[in-house]
Amino acid sequence: MSEKSPNENVPNESDQPSAEVRALDRLVGTWKVTGGAEGTVRYEWMPGRYFLLQHVDLTQFGEPVTGIEVIGKLRPFGEPAGEDVMSRYYDSLGNTLDYVYELTGDKLTIWGGAKGSPAYFEGTFSRDGDALTGEWVYPGGGGYRSAMTRI
């Protein structure tokens, strides 16, 4: 088995964050969230712009939910970046949740777990990009409406 130096995984000067990750730039900023969860979320780029960070401060089902999500393409040691835009969410209750993001035009889809999962969010950005409205759908008919407005 050949071992690779961690430096072999460092991007060279011609590497750039993918177009799929760069498209999420429209999320950068602070948003007021209403619907099944209420509060604020804030998105910011990690230096290098390969990963988008989401800071979560919400109340859902009467309980406070705080956490952080790291969104980008996976690139394990010695391998090229993956195809999908993945994320891992960590919250103050000890949960770690995985998601897949896909932005096509003004439509944002976030699958819970794997792409194509029956648990997903589907929303549409307003023409000016300062609102995102949609719905979380859960297997068995659950879910809730959700709206974000840039503040």
Describe the structure in your own words:
With 151 residues, this protein is mostly beta strands. It is built from 1 helix and 10 strands; from the N terminus they run αββββββββββ. The chain has one helix spanning 19-22, and strands spanning 29-35, 37-45, 51-60, 63-72, 85-91, 96-104, 107-112, 120-125, 131-138, 142-150. A hairpin with a 2-residue loop joins strand 3 and strand 4. It starts with 18 loop residues before the first helix and ends with a strand. The model has no long low-confidence stretch (mean pLDDT 91).
Which descriptors apply to this entry?
151 residues; ten-stranded antiparallel beta barrel; 10 strands; mainly beta
Low-confidence stretches: none
Number of strands: 10
The number of helical runs is 1
Helix content: under 10%
Report Rg: 16 Å
The gross shape turns out to be: globular
Distance between the termini: 52 Å
Query: Percent of residues in beta strands?
Result: over 45%
What topology does this entry show?
Layout: H1 19-22, E1 29-35, E2 37-45, E3 51-60, E4 63-72, E5 85-91, E6 96-104, E7 107-112, E8 120-125, E9 131-138, E10 142-150
Antiparallel strand pairs: 1-2, 1-10, 2-3, 3-4, 4-5, 5-6, 6-7, 7-8, 8-9, 9-10
